[in-house]
Amino acid sequence: xxxxxxxxxxxxxxxxxxxxxxxxxxxxxxxxxxxxxxxxxxxxxxxxxxxxxxxxxxxxxxxxxxxxxxxxxxxxxxxxxxxxxxxxxxxxxxxxxxxxxxxxxxxxxxxxxxxxxxxxxxxxxxxxxxxxxxxxxxxxxxxxxxxxxxxxx
Length: 153
Fold this sequence. Notes:
The protein is of the alpha/beta class. Helices cover 41% and strands 28% of the residues. The protein starts with a helix and ends with a helix.
């Protein structure tokens, strides 16, 4: 009797849903914000997305390592076209890409994030946030902006 119950439980347990694989692409910078700030914020976006436990997350540095391992010559910093984004999706076998920008607008800093379908290059969702102050002020708005982005997909 115990064996039958254990066997029934083993077969009735549903497997966990497969998480989408998401690549966080390096954020472009605008309005005089240095490129290294965009790279740093990209890593922060990647880390915060990982804490939400909704996706398998790949950061740009991991993608660069994949590209080098496969001996591809892919300049991730210059990748902005749909074809290039699709290539990143193929290389990483990702379902979605996170792209975006961080820029200055007068005395404000604006963070804009996009969720892109890796197979088609189509933008599926957009979210943005603005704070008064410099780049350091936007860091606390990354997670809420990601949650807004995810809720609109």
